[in-house]
Design a protein that fits this description.
The chain is of the alpha+beta class. It is built from four helices and ten strands, in the order E-E-H-E-E-H-E-E-E-H-E-E-H-E. The protein has a single domain, classed as Alpha-Beta Plaits, CATH 3.30.70. The relative contact order is 0.19. It comes from Nocardioides flavus (ex Wang et al. 2016).
Length: about 230
């Protein structure tokens, strides 16, 4: 009879086996939207931020993936640069971005993630863009029953509440919203906040998804936020 491997004896897994990646789309609210979108993607490429990334754009969104070390930091740097560049190229107009980050997706990973040691990811460090953003952020730990939920025993609200608390300490989470938490700050810091939370939960939960709707230069911005937490 063979004992099940513990977290300390399981083999470590490389990011390439976790399917770490993002899908995002950018929507400049201006007549020159094609020029702005293509220009923002080109700027990120010319800055070298697409190096060591797999970038595939189709008619819906752009996929960004990496099989190298520190994929989270590379992806955040690329996506934040594209969003900030789109804002500048549109003349400081209203730009919306939809960003989905996923790790451990069974459709991407070929290994049995229950038999490996999930990596602990260092906080991402990304240069500020100088562009302020507001986002609605949601986090989804995809737990398969109570036995695979790490220290929280399969209760999905435990990692979500811990992530929101960390974002509030960071000063980026500013208010609750229906089905989301409101983040505010430099677009790079907003994305880094969500990424650190997503990767942190991913140290215990094999499959984790997080989603942000990012708004820059919204004409409906009020500048007023209230403290709070959201699920």
């Amino acid at each position: 009879m063979t004992a099940s491997p513990t977290a300390s004896t399981r083999a470590p897994v490389h990011p390439r086996d976790l399917g770490v990646g993002a899908r995002f789309s950018v929507h400049p609210h201006c007549d020159r939207f094609v020029e702005v979108i293509l220009g923002a993607l080109a700027e990120a490429r010319e800055a070298g931020l697409a190096d060591s990334l797999v970038v595939e754009t189709d008619e819906v969104s752009t996929y960004v993936g990496s099989v190298d070390d520190a994929p989270e930091e590379r992806i955040v740097a690329y996506v934040s640069h594209v969003l900030a560049a789109a804002h500048r190229l549109s003349g400081g107009g209203h730009v919306v971005g939809h960003v989905l980050l996923s790790r451990g997706c069974p459709g991407e990973a070929a290994c049995d993630l229950g038999a490996v040691r999930l990596p602990i990811v260092a906080p991402v460090r990304v240069e500020p863009t100088g562009v302020d953003a507001v986002a609605q952020w949601s986090l989804y730990p995809l737990l398969d029953g109570g036995s695979g939920g790490g220290s929280h025993g399969g209760d999905h609200m435990v990692p979500i509440e811990a992530a929101i608390a960390a974002a509030r300490r960071r000063g980026t989470a500013v208010a609750p919203a229906h089905y989301a938490t409101r983040l505010r700050g430099d677009v790079a810091e907003v994305l880094a906040t969500a990424t650190d939370a997503w990767a942190g939960v991913g140290a215990e939960v094999p499959h984790v998804v997080t989603h942000l709707t990012v708004s820059i230069g919204s004409p409906s911005a009020t500048g007023v936020d209230t403290d709070g937490a959201a699920a």
